């Protein structure tokens, strides 16, 4: 067969679709679909490359682990569509903030390891700052991030403020592998949360110990739930004028079989952070209702018990069922149960809160605002919510007989409550001087060591028997011994 040496035979195939498919596969594998940021896998590869270059060039860099404070609450309350839009808006602000750092750090060059900002998943983002030599420079960028996320976000007609907690790990001081750096930045982020949120913390070696302790504590909390290690103590409430027993507050206690007593200030924050506070709260409701039933058989034992409701528990879809089913299962009247809710919880989502409170109120459950004066409540909100009681926070009671500001605040709260027809309980009453002031200004009830410390159920039962015995000998029924 003859060949023409001047001719070329070419086979052309259109691979456009194949290239598009390959690009789609690459994007799905390495980029977050929602925010279009690099994902954990791509960031991990980039971080490993950055470590190689930093080691070769003897340079430092920083990892900033950014977590949104209370994002789950927004997601659960307003829905996933609002949550998704919020994440996109946060990613946009972080990207703008990251781009503005180019003049102070070497970030985007492929030669230096690339990728500056990524979404690890959920509400977790991470930023890599290459070539940063000082903590001061990192602090300036972390502060800029906090400021960038400060203005309110608007999503589907809702407006809210979202704050970040940021943990910082430095190479090579805080780790020489990608896993170490991310883990230690994560530990620092949790310390930022525990320090009050909306701030940043640098990793330190002590944080690793605390992080391991936190993880261990989380596991122990799970065991405590399964093995019924928790216990309720009950602190009496007394009429401020007659000293009669008018109720009690259920307080959670944990006597660990090996470690001994673990204070609520230690385990409650971990329970809230992990969501374990919801099953704990459900157990508290059931146990308190069962105790109400048991004490109703005592003379003078038919008193209401107050239970604290955490933010996570209040936002739970099962809250109303949990409350009412606990009362039904224990065969008690719901009016024997009081729920204590903080001001911050009330104002998280006013419309949803109002619906839940009205439902509980119609069922007969008493409602109380706990730690009043420390949050954001106004007269208009108090008039709108079906609240029965205000509890003055102990921080105002402590020095009210010596601090003019605290005294003025307490007097104002009591006067306002009287105008609204609300009952008032003063917490943390420990001295007769405090009691005299509260009586003078019309406080209804007191709670504190002047009346009684919190008591386990068996000791509270002894108190009820003593009250019954004293009543048989005189007219002062249900009187608490000071």
Automatic annotation (TrEMBL):
Kindly state which keywords UniProt assigns to this record, in alphabetical order.
c-di-GMP
Q: Does the keyword Disulfide bond apply?
A: no
Which Enzyme Commission number(s) are listed?
3.1.4.52
**Could you tell me which Pfam families the record lists for this protein?**
EAL (PF00563), GGDEF (PF00990)
Residue ranges occupied by any GGDEF domain in the UniProt entry: 59-205
What are the residue boundaries of the EAL domain, all occurrences included?
A: 214-468
Identify the Gene3D superfamilies for this entry.
3.30.70.270, EAL domain (3.20.20.450)
Single GO MF annotation = cyclic-guanylate-specific phosphodiesterase activity
Q: Out of the domains of life, which is the source?
A: Bacteria
Coiled-coil region(s) = none
Family matches, as InterPro entries: Biofilm_reg_signaling, EAL_dom, EAL_sf, GGDEF_dom, Nucleotide_cyclase, Rev_trsase/Diguanyl_cyclase
Keyword Transport (UniProt): no
Record-linked NCBIfam families: GGDEF (TIGR00254)
Protein name listed in UniProt? cyclic-guanylate-specific phosphodiesterase
Task: Tell me the organism.
Answer: uncultured Woeseiaceae bacterium
